[in-house]
Design goal:
The protein has 4 helices and no strands. It is mostly helical and 91 residues long. Helix 1 crosses helix 2. The longest helix has 17 residues.
Length: 91
């Protein structure tokens, strides 16, 4: 593991970190390690997350859309499934 030295930390900041560490039952070093780890982890997290409910809502909206382009024939899921299994000759 690496060792970091941070100079010129204001006394008030140092004291606030000591209090935070004590409240969580940790040492100052452990608290600082955790704060640094959390900060780096946050930067690697996606900036936008979509919940499963939102994905399902969007999928339902897509299923509800009626095709408007008459140049293309649209098939139902059943027709496509049957075509894959060889039971539908209309494709």
């Amino acid at each position: 593991m690496a060792t970091l030295t941070i100079r010129n930390v204001p006394e008030g900041v140092k004291q606030a970190l000591r209090v935070k560490a004590a409240q969580n039952g940790n040492s100052l070093e452990e608290t600082l390690r955790q704060l640094l780890s959390d900060e780096v982890a946050d930067q690697h997290a996606p900036t936008s997350r979509i919940s499963a409910e939102e994905i399902m809502r969007r999928a339902a909206e897509l299923e509800a859309d009626e095709p408007t382009d008459s140049r293309y024939k649209y098939y139902s899921q059943k027709e496509l499934s049957d075509a894959i299994s060889g039971e539908y000759e209309g494709l």
